[in-house]
Amino acid sequence: MQDQVEKSPQWERDVLEKALTASVTEHRRSRRWSIFFKLIILAYVIFLTTAWYQGKAKPVLKDHVALIDVIGTIGQGQEVDADQVATSLHRAFNEPKVKGIILRINSPGGTPVQSAYIYDELKRQRALHPDKKVYAVAVDICASGAYYVAAGADQIYANKSSIIGSIGVLMPGFGFVDIMKKVGVEQRSMSAGKNKLFMDPFSPVKPEQVEFTQALLDDVHSHFINAVKEGRGSRLKPNNEVFTGLFWTGDKALEMGLIDGIGSSGFVAREVIGVNEVIDYTTSHSLLDRLASRIGSSFSKQLSSELGISSYSLR
Asked: Per the UniProt record, which residue ranges are transmembrane (predicted)?
């Protein structure tokens, strides 16, 4: 009995010590997580602030050339968005210290509508500011919708090995009718409206739908051709292959009148415009803008898929 009494205080102390130790450990763990989450929030705020400031115009003190990148696929929600390029052009044309504008293009093309938007904005800004020249400079590739954009510039330059041209329109598609017959699959889609299943890949091709589609593509192609002819004017040499969708190297494109010279962005700034200072005017959308655009693009693609509508592009 005496031994139990003597052991009791020790037991209580051990339990109390363990409880306090556990409490301290839990407190430290909670503090660590609190610090971790605060750091995450701080990093997120810094990221948003940096992204916001990058989209703001920066004060300019001396004459310079405005550089605007057109890099990647042209389309809403893609690497190159017409609204984004238009914003960049507006800033550049309205800055008094800008003595020339360079569109640095490295793109295989994109949608005809977005390409036409940029082309039209180029023509509009040039009409409003006739004292400022725009120079398109091709890097690796300036084809299809990208060349549509370049045609709106005053002059076009490229490397001798750049790929230039591809003035055509493409609507990709597939047909699975024969495969379905072999594996015993039957098409059972239903629609209201005789053309609702337009160019359905699981049904035999209908000549009248092919004819309609070709007429549509030819119509869009004519818009592309007219824009190139308007932009290039008499510099475009007579050639039966120019508007067939073929493409050429920079030196061959120079012979054909598709471009005006061989040179890089730095060459155009120094030797053509005569200004060494180059400032990047490429507009970057905010994180929320890009997220909203992606959501809108995904919704559009899903809707097109549900309606059975194929997209087409300048290729």
From this structure: 35-53
Q: What is the pLDDT of residues 244-256, one digit of tens each?
A: 999 999 999 999 9
Which tokens go with 308? 């059975």
* 151/313 Cα distance (integer angstroms): 17
Q: How far apart are CA 263 and CA 153, in angstroms?
A: 15
Do residues 92 and 131 lie in contact, with contact meaning Cβ atoms separated by under 8 Å? no
- Among 167, 130, 155, 135, smallest CA distance to 70 is for 135
Among 110, 111, 125, 23, residue whose Cα is nearest residue 73: 110
Residue holding tokens 């690796």?
Answer: 140
Residue-wise pLDDT tens digits, 258-300:
999 999 999 999 999 999 999 999 987 554 454 554 555 454 4
Largest CA distance in the chain: 117
Q: How many CB atoms lie within 10 A of CB 117?
A: 19
Residue 124 has pLDDT above 60, yes or no: yes
124-130 contacts, C-beta under 8 A, 24 or more apart: 125/89, 125/90, 125/93, 126/152, 126/154, 128/93, 129/93, 129/94
Q: Report the amino acid identity of residue 137.
A: V
Q: List b or e across 165-176, with b for residues whose CB sees 16 or more CB atoms inside 10 angstroms.
A: bbbbbeeeeeee
**How much is the pTM?**
0.72
- d(C-alpha 86, C-alpha 47), whole Å: 25
Going from the N-terminus, what domains does the chain have, and what CATH number goes with each? Answer: 64-307 (3.90.226.10)
CB neighbour list of residue 135: distance below 8 Å, 6 or more residues apart: 100, 101, 102, 103, 153, 154, 155, 156, 157, 268, 272, 273
